[in-house]
């Protein structure tokens, strides 16, 4: 169950920045991850929600048995402006968010919520990703490799959309499998299992 979104759906990072009364909020706003006022709003929201006791079934929301895992945010990432290029700022945000969740949802699984993009091609088949025109996946201000090692994250997560990545149709199945295998190896390197949170295709591909 996700506690937010980087994209504008359901409010997203832009809405958080607006609630903090910062100027000109925008989609994937980097200030959602680094500005003290926004971070304080998020902490208070997470604390209030997860410590609330349901009047319907009596369960505390944070440890509710219907929740398989908590996700700090769907696809937490932002444009490079405002964040460092190697993903350290995003990792600091994830550490803090996952730590807050762990405090108010003891014993619950926590996913990273991310789609698996990275700040570099380390641990990936660079030649392959360049050949299919998807090396842009590994030029972000967030690092899957760095985030996988976050101490409160139980399951590093990825989302698999080879069509949306711009991979040619004949190579989408190969790209999907390779992405999952490479990501799983990175997760194992951090002593964790990979959680594939989303898989999508619209062209009838049966991968």
Keywords:
single chain, 207 residues, mainly alpha, two-stranded parallel sheet, 7 helices, 36% helix, globular
* Helicity, as a percent range: 25-40%
Please summarize the sheet with the most strands.
Answer: 2 strands, parallel
Strand content: 5-15%
Order of strands in the sheet with most strands: 1-2
Quick structural summary:
The protein has 207 residues and is mainly alpha-helical. Helix content is 36%, strand content 6%.
What is the strand and helix layout of this fold?
Layout lengths: L11 H8 L11 H4 L1 H16 L17 E2 L17 H17 L4 E2 L15 H6 L12 H5 L8 E4 L11 H18 L5 E5 L8
Parallel strand pairs: 1-2, 3-4
Helix pairs in contact: 3-4
Q: Overview of this structure, please?
A:
The chain is mainly alpha-helical and 207 residues long. Helices cover 36% and strands 6% of the residues. The chain is built from seven helices and four strands, in the order αααβαβααβαβ. The strands form two sheets. It has a two-stranded parallel ribbon with strand order 1-2. A two-stranded parallel ribbon has the order 3-4. Helix 3 runs parallel beside helix 4. The longest helix has 18 residues. It is globular. The chain starts with 11 loop residues before the first helix and ends in an 8-residue tail after the last strand.
